[in-house]
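re: ur question from yesterday

yeah so i grabbed the chain u mentioned. its 128 aa long if i counted rite. heres the sequnce exactly as i have it in my notes:
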Amino acid sequence: MRLSAPCALLVFAVLGIGSAQAQDKKDPCADSQSQAEMNICWGKEYKAADAQLNKTYQDFMSKLDESEKIQLKSAQFAWLKYRDANCDFVADQYKGGTMRPMIAAICLADVTNARVNELKSQIKNREP
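ran it thru and got these structure tokens back, copy pasting raw so excuse formatting
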């Protein structure tokens, strides 16, 4: 099944995937012309979010003492397991469909961007 970009956005809003963020910023993949292009575009969005997460995580780790580093590492590992399992669940509602990779990537990008913001907030709260 192939859905147009506006129809796909409606599906996301109904499911609550990134609905708050979708209101705040333009869909970065709105110019995609096919499902394959949307899948690739959202995959790139997720990779960019993941790179930002790794940078922010490393920055935060550099500001912590050894016991705090252990705590953050443990929390981050648990969060990664949650993110991946949750986004698999969300995407599996489209199992077997051509939209599944896009749904997974949108979920991964949204949740990862939220984690980046969370870590940045924690870093800021630690500053004197």
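noticed a couple things. Residues 68-128 form one domain. also The first helix runs from residue 5 to 15.
anyway ttyl
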